[in-house]
Specification:
Layout: E1 12-15, E2 20-27, E3 30-33, E4 36-43, E5 46-49, E6 54-61, E7 63-66, E8 69-82, E9 87-99, E10 104-111, H1 121-124
Parallel strand pairs: 1-3, 2-4, 3-5, 4-6, 5-7, 6-8, 7-8, 8-9, 9-10
Length: about 130
């Protein structure tokens, strides 16, 4: 017997300026962070960390744009962009990396053909 699944509708989610979240976030769509996240975020879409955004923890997503402060272990299957105002430290695995002049980067980077292959949440996120 097959499961009835609702059609997947991409969503845009926002953690606004001044908001603080501690814990784990799982989202099917895109996520923008202008506040503070202390924990993990698993996203099937794109994560955008705005200039006032701060993350400390783990990040797994399809694409990411960082303009704020990120101290995290990051796994991006496609493209990670560090914008001019970004301050990143940690370990990253990504398919492609773009760093704008002025961005600060401290840590390690591994680029893999086809992205970070060990990200298994992308296939399993809807099952939970």
């Amino acid at each position: 017997m097959s499961k009835n699944r609702e059609p997947e509708i991409p969503s845009i989610n926002i953690l606004g300026p001044g908001a603080i979240v501690k814990g784990e976030i799982q989202v099917n769509g895109d996520f923008r962070i202008d506040g503070t996240l202390n924990g993990s975020i698993y996203c099937k879409g794109k994560i955008v960390v705005g200039p006032t955004g701060k993350i400390e923890g783990d990040i797994q997503c399809q694409n990411a744009d960082f303009s704020g402060e990120v101290k995290a272990s990051v796994r991006v299957t496609e493209l990670l962009t560090l914008k001019e105002t970004a301050r990143y430290s940690g370990e990253m695995i990504t398919g492609k990396l773009a760093i704008e002049p002025g961005a600060q980067f401290s840590g390690t980077c591994a680029m893999e053909q086809g992205g970070a292959k060990e990200i298994k949440f992308l296939e399993n996120l809807n099952e939970t």
